[in-house]
Write a structure and sequence with these properties.
By secondary structure, the protein is mostly beta strands. It has two domains: 12-135, Jelly Rolls (Sandwich), CATH 2.60.120.10; 145-234, Jelly Rolls (Sandwich), CATH 2.60.120. It is built from no helices and 22 strands. The chain has strands spanning 2-6, 12-15, 19-23, 41-49, 54-60, 64-71, 73-78, 83-87, 90-95, 100-106, 113-120, 130-135, 145-150, 158-159, 165-171, 176-180, 186-194, 196-199, 202-205, 209-213, 217-222, 226-234. It comes from Gelidibacter pelagius.
Length: 238
């Protein structure tokens, strides 16, 4: 098993006043040649957006973009005709493909919104743009990982144009679960949303990240109540 650890306080930090963003990988003005990506996982931004502020209309192309709200409500609009709110407990995916324009705003006038913005390099270029979002409340489980994204349209969760599987687990202290790699050659980037866990003998705390590859499985144990996001992705670009 190979591993790499990115502690929370070593991430890139961008504070624009209305936006405070922590970058696990190089993004915008934060450039670290040793942190360009984890396989096809290109962007992992931990964003906090001030009341009623947000990202104006801007373009994307040939990228699978996943948003996971952690607190508050995020308003989304795009040129495909989607106007919606994504909330804590939802997951959103957008295949930019041949090109899409969208905006994202904090829908709350009295509190910030916190969300993860995740970019995955697709295995198909120039696809027709698409949008989807679901609530995770009906599929959430306690003390085990449950799938929230996969390459398969008919599987649980949303889907993406890539051999990627995302899982979330909410654990009470002392509980653990073993994750099995879905596809040989894939690795997993574990991101600790809340609490503390132990993975392969390493103690990880809130907003720490750890990449794991060259293994078939690994176990995550909660040393405190915890919530963990696992992002399984190909380690080689297509």
């Amino acid at each position: 098993m190979n591993t790499i650890i990115h502690r929370s306080d070593t991430r890139g930090d961008a504070n624009h006043g209305w936006l405070h963003s922590k970058h696990t990988f190089s993004f915008a003005n934060y450039h670290n040649p040793e942190r360009m990506n984890f396989g096809v996982l290109r962007v992992l931004n931990d964003d906090t957006v001030s009341e009623s502020r947000g990202f104006g209309t801007h373009p994307h192309q040939d990228m699978e973009i996943v948003s996971i709200p952690l607190e508050g409500d995020l308003k989304h609009e795009d040129n495909m005709g989607n106007k919606t709110i994504i909330r804590e407990g939802d997951i959103q995916v957008m295949s930019a493909g041949t090109g899409v324009m969208h905006s994202e705003y904090n829908n709350n006038p009295d509190k910030p919104v916190k969300f993860l913005q995740i970019w995955v390099i697709p295995n198909k270029r120039n696809v027709e743009p698409r949008y989807d979002q679901i609530s995770l409340k009906d599929i959430a489980k306690e003390n085990e990982f449950y799938q929230v994204l996969s390459p398969n349209k008919d599987d649980q969760g949303v889907w993406a144009h890539q051999d990627a599987w995302f899982n979330i687990g909410k654990f009470t202290k002392g509980n653990s679960d073993t994750y099995q790699i879905n596809k040989k050659g894939n690795g997993v980037y574990a991101f600790i949303l809340e609490g503390e866990v132990e993975l392969n003998g390493e103690k990880l705390s809130k907003r720490d990240g750890m990449g794991v590859w060259d293994t078939d499985s690994f176990t995550v144990k909660a040393t405190e109540d915890a919530r963990v996001l696992l992002m399984e992705v190909p380690m080689q670009m297509n």
